[in-house]
Amino acid sequence: MRLCHTLRGRHQQRRSNLTPFRTQLAVRHLRNGGILAYPTEAVYGLGCDPLNAEAVQRLLALKQRPYNKGLILIAASIKQLEPFIQPIKAGLRKRLQASWPGPTTWVVPAQNWVPGWLTGHTHELAVRVTAHPGCIALCKAFGSPLISTSANPRASVPAKTAHKTRGYFPHADLQFLPGSIGDLQHPTHIIHARSGRSLR
Q1: % helix / strand / coil in the chain, to the nearest 5?
Q2: Which residues, in sequence order, are CB contacts of 87 under 8 Å at separation 6+?
Q3: Alpha helices in the chain (DSSP H)
Q4: Are 43 and 160 in contact (CB under 8 A)?
Q5: Model's pTM, two decimal places?
Q6: What values do phi and psi take at 50, rounded to 5?
Q7: Within 10 Å of residue 156's Cβ, how many Cβ atoms?
Q8: Which of these, 2, 26, 152, 180, has the minimum number of CB atoms within 10 Å of its CB?
Q9: Exposed, middle or buried, 157 (CB in 10 Å: 0-12/13-18/19+)?
Q10: pLDDT tens for each residue of 16-46
Q11: Long-range own/partner contacts, residues 189-192 (CB < 8 A, 24 or more apart)
Q12: What domains are there in the chain, each with its CATH number?
């Protein structure tokens, strides 16, 4: 956990170079069903409105990602995630809050209404309160969590730059958010909340 706090501190020291104008353009793109490419803690990510079925289908098709694998939601705060997840017991909430904001994703029970394209073949949802300043600004401006999945086709190495992302998806209608990825060398850690198992 000490390493997690160290990484979290590094991310918090970074500043977002997003202007309000660029942020609002990104939010408009998302609300219109668009897919956004943006820097995250470790890699470039692809995201969209998690409740827009058509946008999610296009995102999955771009990545050649199976529908039943589910997707990660990132948020600016745990409050943004609460409508999507079952109430969290005090002990688990402390564990989550100890790692957030930061590069740890937790798999927790989802609310019954959450669509299957987010939960996959389970009734659980992968969620993270991000420490990346650009992602925080984006989620705050959008007013909701966003899908965050690595910017690469299935079985390819995740992109770490906008240039690499465009190379993977040369014909896709992507809007790019400016900024730099964080300090992580590998994709974020994923933990199953109920069992404590490390999934990545």
Answers
A1: 40, 20, 40
A2: none
A3: 2-13, 20-31, 53-63, 78-81, 90-99, 116-119, 133-142, 162-168
A4: yes
A5: 0.89
A6: -65, -15
A7: 13
A8: 2
A9: exposed
A10: 567 889 999 999 999 999 999 999 999 999 9
A11: 189/4, 189/103, 189/104, 189/105, 190/104, 190/105, 190/106, 190/107, 190/126, 191/104, 191/105, 191/106, 191/107, 192/106, 192/107, 192/124
A12: 2-192 (3.90.870.10)
Are the CB atoms for 154 and 7 separated by under 8 Å?
Answer: no
What is residue 5's predicted lDDT score, i.e. its pLDDT? 40
- Provide Rg for the chain, Cα atoms: 16
Return the exposure string of 2-16: e unless at least 16 CB atoms fall within 10 Å of the residue's CB, then b: eeeeebbebbeebeb
